[in-house]
Amino acid sequence: MLISDQYFNKTLQNMKENPQIALSWWGARGGFQIKGTVTIHTNEEVFGQNVAWMKERWPKFVLKSAVLVTITDVYIVKPDPEPGKKIL
Q: How far is 23 from 12, CA to CA, in rounded Å?
């Protein structure tokens, strides 16, 4: 998973100090939590590709870094017969 950084400040510092991440969200298919490890890219190929992608879609945003998340676990976090069930 790739996260484009335009505004990170404290979040970026936190990821540098501890590269473990957990993200939760709700959508049309339910709620999920993703856990993984981040690598922060500021001038490599990953960053360049992210800059090009962002310029196509949102040209007024200035990209500071590209955060690549290697997903290690995914859990269900919605009302379900098995809430908290690990699905990946």
A: 15
CB 26 within 8 A of CB 61: no
Structure tokens at 60: 């007024």
The token pair that represents 5 in the structure block: 């950084």
Report the distance separating Cα 81 and Cα 84, nearest Å. Answer: 10
Domains and CATH numbers, the chain: 2-76 (2.30.110.10)
Q: What is the pLDDT of residues 33-80, one digit of tens each?
A: 999 999 999 999 999 999 999 999 999 999 999 999 999 999 999 887
Alpha-carbon separation of residue 18 from 2, 32, 37, 72 (angstroms): 17, 22, 9, 15
Q: How many CB atoms lie within 10 A of CB 4?
A: 19
- Specify the pairing of strand 20-27 against strand 30-41: antiparallel
Structure tokens at 46: 């990953």
